[in-house]
Input
Amino acid sequence: MSAERDKMTGRLRKYHSNFYYVEADGVQYECALRGLIKKEGTEPLVGDFVELDSVQPQSKTARIHRVLPRKNTISRPKLANVDQVFVVYSLKEPEFDPNQMDRYLTHIELAGLKAILCISKTDLAATQADLSRIQTLYGEQLGYTVVFSSVRQPETLQVLSKLAEGKISVLAGPSGSGKSSLLNALNPALQLRVGEVSEKIARGQHTTRHVELLTLFADQPDTLIADTPGFSNLKLNYVLPDRLRDAFREFAPYQSACAFSDCLHVDEEGCAVLAHRADIAESRYQSYLNMLAEARQHKEAVNSTSQKAEFGYKQLDRKGKDALRILRLKEKNRDASRRVVRQQVSQLEGDLSEDLRFPDVDAE
Output
């Protein structure tokens, strides 16, 4: 039996079937999670740097002892320490949906990350105008980097390769948009599973089932990219209205001139954004209104919650060691103690013995 190694640090590359796969010193370890991490309320995310203990070099197993501080996170897909996000959306099959694209971009803006639009399947464009409309709105007016690509036109993939070089990137987008196909075109050795788009519902099938950081090029170990499951429902039901407003970059030039600092640019008097509606794309403004309705519902739910939170935190002293911050549950959420369980069982047995007494057969 091999001896355990001391603690070591690695990057979480994949989470699948309740196991965490961490790369450390060029070796991938299958890892369990230290119990106290869950009590601390920490969820390890793909992309996290973690500290391992109980390392077994021969079996390539270990335990995640601690999650190191992150520079950023995104919630959907769940990832940490990301440099940029490629929003992959097909031009056709399925049809390009501006509202859905805006939802992806808003999530990325809220996370404080750089978004790059990658419009795939551009070989299906009927006219150049199909591409020009997207470039004009998202590239020229909003300032995003827009890349048009097709796996049938290998020369278009060179731009993607250059943008990904030396960075931790994420491919995000709906199912069927061609994320896995693009990665296979960039590096055929990946051999990722690719699905077909359903003709009945015009939607792609979920071929990527989990989030994983992949080495895009064998000779560039620092160039990592995540292929992620596609999402069709990206609600903004976790953010307050003012944060949502600030995620729309086209409002920035005007909103400081609004009469009220908390203006949401809907129907307020003296709104400078409304005064410049002609300069804002109608599709973007409608996307904003749709998401604002969800953010307002979230705010109402927050305001209407008068009872205390079900969960909190407490400090656990550890005899000279640093205090540990762990979850504290309200009384109704705590598991009963062993003593209480034994008392309940004992009482139940007593009740059953009373109910199941046989009558005295000699009694008349």
The domain at 8-71 is CATH 2.40.50.140 (OB fold (Dihydrolipoamide Acetyltransferase, E2P)). The chain is about 30% helix and 30% strand. The two ends are 73 Å apart (CA to CA).
